[in-house]
Write a structure and sequence with these properties.
- By secondary structure, this protein is α/β, with parallel strands linked by helices.
- Helices cover about 40% and strands about 15% of the residues.
- The chain is built from 14 helices and twelve strands.
- The strands form two sheets. It has a seven-stranded mixed β-sheet, with helices on both faces. A five-stranded mixed β-sheet has the order 8-9-12-11-10.
- Helix 3 runs parallel beside helix 9, helix 4 runs parallel beside helix 5 and helix 4 crosses helix 8.
- It is globular, with a radius of gyration of 22 Å.
- It binds ligand 3LM.
- The site of ligand 3LM has 18 residues, from helix 4 and helix 5.
- Keywords: Pyridoxal phosphate.
- This is Methionine gamma-lyase.
- Belongs to the trans-sulfuration enzymes family.
- InterPro entries: Cys/Met-Metab_PyrdxlP-dep_enz (IPR000277), Cys_met_metab_PP (IPR054542), PyrdxlP-dep_Trfase (IPR015424), PyrdxlP-dep_Trfase_major (IPR015421), PyrdxlP-dep_Trfase_small (IPR015422).
Length: about 400
C-alpha cells in the first residue's frame, strides 16, 4: 500500500490503506460487493482455509474494501493491525467474547457508553465474568489484582467528558498482568493515540468521527498481531458481526478528512465552551479544554486537541428538555461526531438503561445535555445555544 509509517498523520489519513486497485488501476478504493471469492482449485481452497496462503475467500472473514479500512485505522492508531466490525457494539462484544473466560474480572472506569456498560453487566456477567466499576484511576489501582483480565476505559468519557489518564491505567494493568482497552471514539487518533501511552487495544465506534458524516454504522479494534489474530479467529469468525464493504468505503472516504474535521470540531467546541463559561442558566459545564475542568492538565498532556463534545448541566430534566426543544442548529438525535451538530439528553436516551442510581453515581445527572459540536461556523452555534438558554431562563422566571 502506498504509505509508510514515517509519513505525518495527515498524509497517512489520506494514503494509508489506499493503493491503485490491482485488477483495474481504479484510484478510488472499489467497493468489493461480493460475499465469496473463487479460489480456482481445490488445493488452493484448502491452503486458504488452513491459513497456508494469504487471500480473500469469504467476506465475513476478509474483504479487500474492509481490509483497506482496517489498514488505515491501524496506521492512524500506530498499531500493527486492525479488525473491523459491523458496529461499535459488534467490536465490544467480539473483544469480550474473545478475551474473557469464566472467573476473569473486568474493571471499567465509569461512565462508559451505556451499551458497553450494558454488555459487561448483562452479557459478560452471565458467563461467569466479574464486572467492577471504578470511579477513577486510583480505584482501578485499588481494585486490580491477579484475576483482572481486562481494564476498559473511554477518554473523554461518554457523556460526562471526564478525562482518564491512559498511562496510569496502563501501568496498573501491567502491574497485575491485565490487558487494557481504550475506546477512542471520542478522541479519535487525530487527538489521542492510546498505544503511545501503553494501551494494548484501541477500539472505535466508527459510526462517529471516523466516518464523520452520519451515514454508516461500524466498529473497529486495533492492536498487536497476536491479539488481533485471536480476535479475528474468534470474535470475527465465530461471533460474525463483520463490516460490509459499502460501509468500509464510506469510512475510508470519511477518514481522509479526519484531521481537518477534528480541527474544526475542536475549534467549535472550545469557542462554544468559552462562550458559555459562567452562564447563569448552567449548573455545570463540562469541556476538557476549559482550564477549570478537573482533567484539563491530563488532557493537555495526552490529547492534541480537546475534542468536539461539550456537556451542560441545566439542573433538572425539565430545563434540559426546554433547552433541547429550542435548539435549531443542533439536531436532537443520539450519536455524535457528524459534520452536523447533534444534541441529546443522555439520561433518557444513550444511557437510560443504566437505571437512576448508576446514572447519578456516574455523573449522568437529570439535567445533563450532550452537545456534539459539528463543523459549522462556531459563531452560529454559540448564538443557537445562547438563544435556547434564554428560553430556559424565561421558563424558570415564569414559574418563580
Ligand atoms: C451515543 N454511542 O449516542 P455503535 N463506544 C462509544 C459510543 O459512543 C458508542 C458505541 C461504542 C452512541 C450511539 S445510542 C443508541 C447511539 C464511546 C455509541 C457503540 O454500535 O456503532 O453505535 O457504537 O452515545
Amino acid at each position: 500500500m502506498s504509505h509508510n509509517s514515517d509519513h505525518a498523520f495527515r498524509t497517512r489519513a489520506v494514503h494509508a490503506g489506499h493503493g491503485l486497485d490491482p485488477a483495474t488501476g481504479a484510484h478510488a478504493t472499489p467497493i468489493y460487493a461480493t460475499s465469496t471469492f473463487g479460489y480456482g482449485s481445490a488445493e488452493r481452497g484448502a491452503r486458504l482455509f488452513a491459513g497456508e496462503e494469504a487471500g480473500f475467500f469469504y467476506s465475513r472473514l476478509s474483504n479487500p474494501t474492509v481490509r483497506a479500512f482496517e489498514e488505515k485505522v491501524a496506521s492512524l492508531e500506530g498499531l500493527p493491525d486492525a479488525v473491523a466490525f459491523a458496529s461499535g457494539m459488534g467490536a465490544v462484544s467480539a473483544l469480550c467474547l474473545t478475551l474473557l473466560r469464566p472467573g476473569d474480572e473486568v474493571i471499567f472506569v465509569a461512565p462508559l457508553y451505556g451499551g458497553t456498560t450494558g454488555f459487561l453487566h448483562e452479557v459478560a456477567a452471565r458467563f461467569g465474568v466479574t464486572v467492577r466499576e471504578a470511579a477513577d484511576e486510583a480505584a482501578v489501582e485499588a481494585l486490580s489484582g491477579p484475576a483482572t483480565r481486562l481494564i476498559w476505559v473511554e477518554t473523554p468519557t461518554n457523556p460526562a467528558l471526564d478525562i482518564v489518564d491512559l498511562a496510569r491505567v496502563a501501568r496498573a494493568a501491567q502491574a497485575c498482568g491485565a490487558l487494557t482497552v481504550a475506546d477512542n471514539t471520542f478522541s479519535t487518533p487525530a487527538l489521542t493515540r492510546p498505544a503511545e501511552h501503553g494501551i494494548d487495544l484501541v477500539m472505535h465506534s466508527a459510526t462517529k468521527y471516523l466516518g464523520g458524516h452520519g451515514d454508516a454504522i461500524g466498529g473497529v479494534v486495533a492492536g498487536s498481531q497476536d491479539l488481533l489474530a485471536e480476535l479475528r479467529g474468534i470474535g470475527l469468525r465465530h461471533v460474525g458481526a463483520a463490516l460490509g464493504p459499502f460501509e468500509a468505503y464510506l469510512f475510508l472516504r470519511g477518514m481522509k478528512t479526519l484531521p481537518l474535521r477534528m480541527q474544526a470540531h475542536c475549534e467549535g467546541a472550545q469557542t462554544l465552551a468559552e462562550a458559555l463559561a459562567g452562564h447563569p442558566a448552567l449548573h455545570a459545564l463540562h469541556y476538557p479544554g476549559l482550564p477549570g475542568h478537573p482533567g484539563h492538565a491530563v488532557a493537555a498532556r495526552q490529547m492534541s486537541g480537546f475534542g468536539g463534545l461539550v456537556s451542560l448541566d441545566l439542573g433538572s430534566q425539565g430545563a434540559a428538555f426546554t433547552f433541547l426543544n429550542h435548539l435549531r442548529l443542533f439536531t436532537q438525535a443520539v450519536s455524535l461526531g457528524d459534520v452536523e451538530s447533534l444534541s441529546c439528553h443522555p439520561g433518557s436516551t444513550t444511557h437510560h438503561l443504566l437505571g437512576e442510581k448508576a446514572l447519578r453515581r456516574q455523573g449522568v445527572t437529570p439535567g445533563l445535555v450532550r452537545l456534539s459540536v459539528g463543523i459549522e461556523e462556531p459563531r452560529d452555534l454559540v448564538r443557537d445555544v445562547l438563544d435556547a438558554l434564554q428560553h430556559v431562563q424565561r421558563a424558570q422566571f415564569q414559574t418563580t
